[in-house]
Amino acid sequence: MAPSSARFDTLAIHAGQAPDPTTGAVMTPIYQVSTYAQAGVGGHKGYEYSRTDNPTRTALQACLAELEGGKFGLCFASGLAATDVILRSLVRPGDLVLCGDDVYGGTYRLFDKVLREWGVNFQYADFSSSDPAALVPGRTRLVWLETPTNPLLKVSDIAAVAARCREVGAILVVDNTFATPYFQRPLSLGADIVVHSTTKYLNGHSDVVGGFAALGDAAIYEKMKFLQNAAGAVPGPMDCWLTLRGVKTLSVRMERHQKNAIAIVDYLSAHPGVERVYYPMQSPVARRQMSGFGGMISFELRGDLDRARRFVAATRIFTLAESLGGVESLIETPALMTHASIEPEKRRAAGIADGLIRLSVGIEDVDDLVGDLERAFGG
Ligand code: P1T
To answer: CATH no. for residue 271?
Structure first.
């Protein structure tokens, strides 16, 4: 096990992963098991049933919690399962939840089509452009912040929103999926909970769907741990193992994602066929609160929606697909794909143009990636 003073890259490889006590196996085994023998009733070694706890999951929870600087960590079957457990543990019908106006379409769908039906009130606001003190009413129970946002890469000042949340007694949750703890650590900036779709950069290889939450408050942890077990949206041991393996290379992958992304931002910004490029580096708050800007880029083409449709179908290395954060490059149109569950007028009001294109820049050779975009421009 890594000493507690170890730095990020060391923790990514060792945290929560001492050699297996029974065999000495250096890598955490895949405990592909549902139940555990008891010597007498209640006489077990900390594990009774794998919905409640599983050693491979325990290792992943501990590793990711350390990377985010949280005392506690909980893994889920998907990012949305993590979101659902956070909301249902902490919010009751009648409560007010304030959410960024530019979030993953599935998060919006869960809030608007499921939890709103349950009686929770949701309001949406642009945290990147307004003073949080003016945005967050005194009766707010919870603030849900994505920064950078999906898909417009808008950046909000986590410390400022956290200060306002403390003033009014609201819980601040930050979705850190795009930045990862390698580039941004929301708990250290005052957030109460940090949440991830581990499907993305943390696993990094587009072969797992998973979610994770880290936090420091024991009472909130107990509520969420209870619901993790009571509702049971837990990841299987194989998925936990794959994610543990993926996390070991997080820092080297993120550096390369970012290097490639910056080169592509430069290329797109200089291209006459491009109207506008979105990347977090353009924000002064990002330069203050993030140590890097990641591998996600969005851009608008000059021309209509059909031009965007043709563009995303024309690339050969950038695969036309939803999701992000894997080693391979992906391209998509949020209005027609990842954010299609948001009503068109709400989507447009949030600034998500119909013809917006989103890139998840992978770690391939950047000249090949630029060449692929050049081909799609018809060059
Ligand atoms: O897909 P799932 O693991 O349930 O994670 C949901 C989720 C939560 N938060 C953010 C910021 C996300 O981007 C996602 C999932 N996003 C996509 C699938 C996508 O293509 O944008």
So the answer is: 3.90.1150.10
